[in-house]
Amino acid sequence: MTQNLDLTDIQGNIVKAYGSSGFFKARYLFLRVDDGDKGRDFVGAITSKVTSANEKLKGDDALTVTTNMAFTYAGLQALELPTASLVGFPSDFVMGMSKRKDILGDDGPSDPKYWDKIWQEKVHIWISINGKTSDVVEERYQWILQQIKATGGVTLLRGHCGEDGNGNAVDDLPYQDASVLYEKDGVTPTAKEHFGYTDGIGDPVFDGQTNNAARVIGRGKLTRSGDWVPLATGEFILGHVDEAMEYPQTAPRPDLLSNNGTYMVYRKLHENVGTFNKFLDEQSKDYPGGKELLAAKFSGRWRDNGAPLVHTPDNESKAEWDKKFAAADDATQKRMLTDFTYNEDISGAKCPFSAHTRRINPRGSLEYGVKDAFHTPGALVDRRRILRRGLPYGKVKDETSDKGNHGIIFMALNADIKRQFEFVQQQWINYANDFKQGNDKEVLLGNHSSKDPGKVVLQVEPGSGKPPHFVNNIPRLVETRGGDYFFIPSIGALKLIAGGLVDPT
Amino acid sequence: MSNIAGKAYAMNVITPIPWYKVWLNRLIFWAALKIPNVLNGLLTLSLIHYARWVIIPRDKFPRLDPSQPKEDLNYSYMLFFSNFNGSWDQYVDSFTFAIPSGLDLFWKMNVKYPKSVPLTPFHNYIQHNQIDTAHYYNAYPMAASNDVKSAKNVKKALIDFNAASSNKSPDEFLEDYNKLLNQLQNDFGEMRPTPIVSLAAQAVKERVMEEQRQSH
Questions:
Q1: In this complex, do A375 and B99 lie within 8 Å of one another by their Cβ atoms?
Q2: What phi, psi does A476 have (nearest 5°)?
């Protein structure tokens, strides 16, 4: 580790995913600033409880609840940041997510006109509460309501779809709740989402984030010698050098406003569970490897334990892997989940080019086996990584139906929304030229159209004489239900914003 | 006016190079074509349709007509000309990440070339010296270069298959057909209009189409 980050200045959600530290419950609030002066007072009040990356999350004297805060461009305008600072923000952030729909592929049922009502409002401030229990989340929520009352000048916006206390569907909730999913016993937390996949295994690691070299394997960047090293801090935090050997160009002036801050993409993604289950059942009828292998081919990992397909391409190798995994200690298990590249599978015969994990992080395989083609194996990958900080929301009541409110609150953090998140979404999920698969979309997240359903090819061993497997009639499995782009300032910058002290001269 | 047609972007960059260094640059180009593997990176970047570098000596700058006065130029020039898929940012980014030393080698003799890393000075250099495309025709607007390569593979393989297997027994035919599918398994990508290269270019296109609709 070469970087010593100022962890007291960086908001805690940037450096760690709270969900993996036992914070299983979350609540997201969105507010409108009605009065700049009072709005800044409100920001100041909340800032006193904003969680830094220096706080202890595990152990005896650890926090039980966290709070973090971010702003849309309109929010920063409403809080009266000087124009000379505002003009320094990148155009993707200025436009906001709904106006980027043609880039993101938010069409058909994902079109912003069908989003939760709150996204018709002027969303200015995002506040997140993550807690170890629902009670501490509620307690912190009540505290925030008190601050709203005390300072005035801001309005908590209603309009989230979800369920009221009696389990009835409503569309005007004042917050978005999220929670890990539990085993059938209702007590044991899992890392799964509603389709049954294990989520968040391969999150990137950047310089300064961890002292544990083992955590970097399969999660940092791949070097020519085959080692993994952390990505440059500037890929994820402003004011630090990035992979292009410069400070991120997306930072507004002054440095005190941007340093140690970053950008967040918030997306509410509804999962069509009924359609998914039906689709998987139908498609696996004529798939030789069976239902679970086919489900793994969609994602790149097996649903039960996240085993990477590259090392478990069939049922026999999976059984072997499972035995080893069950006997391994925690560190070895983590390594087994992340220590692989797609250079072990250049033809896609094990993990197809359409698989989710291969699409969002090709792991240094875009040289296609050409020796030393690029400066580094990850030359086309290392600048396209995103930190994922999200949790599932809602419960599936009927596994044969798409109806209800359940999905993932997806939050991606990056220094450059256009270069990182939007690129992955547009070029790698909804398009496949970099994978030499034309317009074939990723199976799970692609914006497949019901009029013109998608298809993908599941590659087989080249020269084996066997035909590849074609997956046809792929329906829209995931729909966007809302979201926007946010700026997460450092804690120092929050204080400047609250004090009306931002001065770029 | 647009640098974009369909999925392709046309880039023209013309940079001054001191006339007495031109021979060195020619030597570099010559060596790049002779020494194996030097262009591997460029060829592996499959978003590129093609890239061409041409040196224009200072006394050979083209004129549209003999009546056009000859210019008295201080520099020779290097013309870089490329068509590629995706946006300007995506292309220049991919170039600098994948083959920074190759770019530096080809441009190093050029006036005020900043090197390809860090990125922003290189971005500024390319942008400063880029000449926008006034007219750009694309016969296959939905095709990326990989699509063209795949289409050629499929066509040849089908013709060969037809010649070799069309009269075989059903069982043998099936075996050959499965082999054909295996051989072509990475050439079956769909070819469709998305993704849009830029929102600004898309807006221009939609306005033009709307005007055309109204005039009919």
A1: yes
A2: -75, 110
**Per CATH, which fold does B4-131 belong to?**
Alpha-Beta Plaits (3.30.70)
The pair of three-digit structure tokens given for residue B40, joined into one six-digit string: 């591997």
Question: How distant is the Cα of B168 from the closest Cα of chain A, in angstroms?
Answer: 17
For chain B, domain boundaries? 4-131, 145-183
The predicted complex's ipTM stands at 0.94
Domain boundaries, chain A: 273-387+394-409+432-481
Token pair for residue A26?
Answer: 């979350």
3-class DSSP state of A10: coil
Report residue A336 as tokens: 């087994």
Contact assignment for A371 to B37 by CB distance below 8 Å: yes
CB atoms inside a 10 Å sphere around CB A432: 24
Q: What is the pLDDT of residues B119-170, one digit of tens each?
A: 999 999 999 999 999 889 988 889 999 999 999 999 999 999 999 999 999 9
HEC states along A167-199?
Answer: CCEEEEECCEEEECCECCCCCCECCECCCCCEC
Distance from CA of B182 to the nearest CA of A (A): 5
Secondary element (H or E) of residue A468: none
Burial class (CB in 10 A: 0-12, 13-18, 19+), A208: buried
Across the interface, whether the CB atoms of A367 and B44 are under 8 A apart is answered yes
CB distance A367 to A224 below 8 Å = no
Nearest to residue A466, comparing CAs of B26, B122, B176?
Answer: B176
CB pairs under 8 A between A and B: 134
**Dist CA A230 CA B126 (whole Å):** 30
Question: CB-based contact (8 Å) between A2 and chain B?
Answer: no
If you count them, how many residues does chain A have?
505
